[in-house]
Amino acid sequence: MSDSHYALFDTVLGRCGVAWSEQGLTRVALPHADDDALRARLAPAIEAAPPPRVAAAIAQITDHVAGRPSQLDTIELDMRGLSDFQAELYFYAQQIPSGQTSTYSALAARLRKPGAARAVGQAMGKNPFPIVVPCHRVLAAHQGTGGFSAPGGVVTKARLLAAEGFTLAIQPDLPF
Fold first, then answer.
1. Catalytic (active site) residue 135
2. Which of 20, 48, 89, 139 is 20–30 Å from 127 (CA)?
């Protein structure tokens, strides 16, 4: 039996989900094609009513994407299974203030690995906690969007940044 549970919830982006363990959130899932795809992303967790600390995290995430941004670094995360590199990177990414951005190379330098911008990008692409660990705030050099592995790609990235009051220099079509 799984020690991990999940819940789905509605946001202005669409239906999202979170999975959690006793240690904290294990995954945040942005909207997928349908609820079955979203549930598959959160597997092998079991659907359940969220306990109060998870319900509070859901409320924070929902408010954040609706344009009422807050610092989400108080949400407990279960980082078991992540590499030390990923855990340290995600910690530094959480320090990027809402409405501001950084670059892959700046985060690599912060990690004392100045040649690791590509590794930073790959780790951000595997971020299990989008929004809470704000990978959408990490851009390529010269304000380029860089990639975004979540459903919707760079359009979702731009929508998340717009909710925080930041407009990309290169603006994809934002269907709100």
1. yes
2. 48
